[in-house]
Amino acid sequence: MTDASIKPLTTEPTPRSFSSRRDTLKKMRGGEDLEWDIIVIGGGITGAGVLREAARRGYRALLLEQNDFSWGTSSRSSKMIHGGLRYLAAGDIALTKQSLRERERLLQEAPGLVDRITFYFTLGKGLFPGRFALSAILAIYDFIAGIRDHRYRNNRFLADRFAGLKTDHLKGACAYSDAMVDDSRLVLRVLDESIGAGATALNYTKVSQLLIENNRVCGVVLDDPDSETALQLRAPVVINATGAWADRLRNSVNPEKRVRPLRGSHLVIPRHLMPVDDVLTSLHPSDKRGVYIYPWEGATVIGTTDLDHDEDLDIEASISAQEMAYLISAFNHQFPQQQLQASDVLSTWAGVRPVIGSEKSKDPSKERRDHAVWSDNGLITVSGGKLTTFRLIALDVLAAALDKVPRAKPFSSDSIFSTPECSADQLLATDPAWAQRLLGRYGNAAIHLLTQASDDEHQRIGETDFCLAECRWALRHEAVEHLDDLLLRRTRLGMLLADGGETIFPQLETLCTAELGWSNEQWTAEVSRYQSIWRRYYSLPHQ
Q: What's the predicted TM-score (pTM) here?
């Protein structure tokens, strides 16, 4: 691949960067940018979605995240854009319809970031659901989505599609489609669109407390380590979009506790151990819960668990030894000849789902996944919900804020993402599939990402689709503060390469020195910090 193969955009828009945290805080200390229409706390997909919808309506909107963008659940999901099949099975047609419409919207607006994939739900002998029951549900599922792609596949087909699959306990599988996404990149793209519409988003900026006057929330107080005076920011409405942490902030004004944190853990194994191009769903032999085996960024993932998470939410979630054994046993039950072992695992991740507790179910898997919005004297709290429906969740939040904010300005389109100004073929004729991936992940910035990097930085890293050009872009434009931001969220190289990506540290040191001005001492400190995080939370579990 050469730079000559990259076609420039016609208008060459200036690439935008995320707000400089240091520059923005400096302005605030000087008395600027202290008044906002809406302040959003939480930098996951829900907060990003609220920011996007607020900005397009003309509100002066600010998002504050105490860690990195997508640090919590929104970088640790199962990466699936579901249309709500489980809702349909439970009889909730309205919610299924919403989810399917949002799935199709995302597929249309962001190809290369959100991509359709086939799911194969295996049918166990003597187990529910059977072929005809599931086929009937899938027929309705497709009808609501406006497509028809569900079908039955026999054991012979499955054995060809998934090499080594044990089929003597199966009666085939029902196939249907949903979609996959890089969840962290989805957050970054939504934030980028928000910034393009005039919003401001800051990571590593902690809200120490809510600003309350006359029993009403009227802003936030920032934890500013560079100033002896606390920074007070005012807004007629504050949005609490902190997910699993929502109760903690809400309890400043309402003691009610509604969020039930549930942990879902995953294993990442090299693709060559189990090369799959589709999602295989099977019931675990011990508890009959569904477990997925699916492709992700050049690797294969096994997940997920569904357990109450009773640990400190300020400490990153990590997989337990019991969860690892559970997932390995699920895999080996389906692929007995493979005999996967812990030593085969590249990395792990665990996310904490902010599920709204019903007080009716002791089984975490039976809790509903829909969202809830609460309004408490100027504080609007949102939690729960699906990755798929983040736009609808944002609209519900803004509806709760309408009586507290200025009149919204008119807007002509409700698209989440702006349409790229060139096609994949126009961007990179030599590799349109990869070009589409870049357009999906970066939009119009894809052309700048390629042209601002040297030709050797365009080459794929290992078996992944990531390249050093993406690393350079992230360092230059996407508010990277630490090495783990780059390797675990801007890219996913730390989860896809052996030993957290140590083999590319020399190249990354050169990039970080050039783009962030890190000294040798700072680089060494960042490597130490990153390796500590990776070994504790993304490697094999501690016994």
A: 0.95
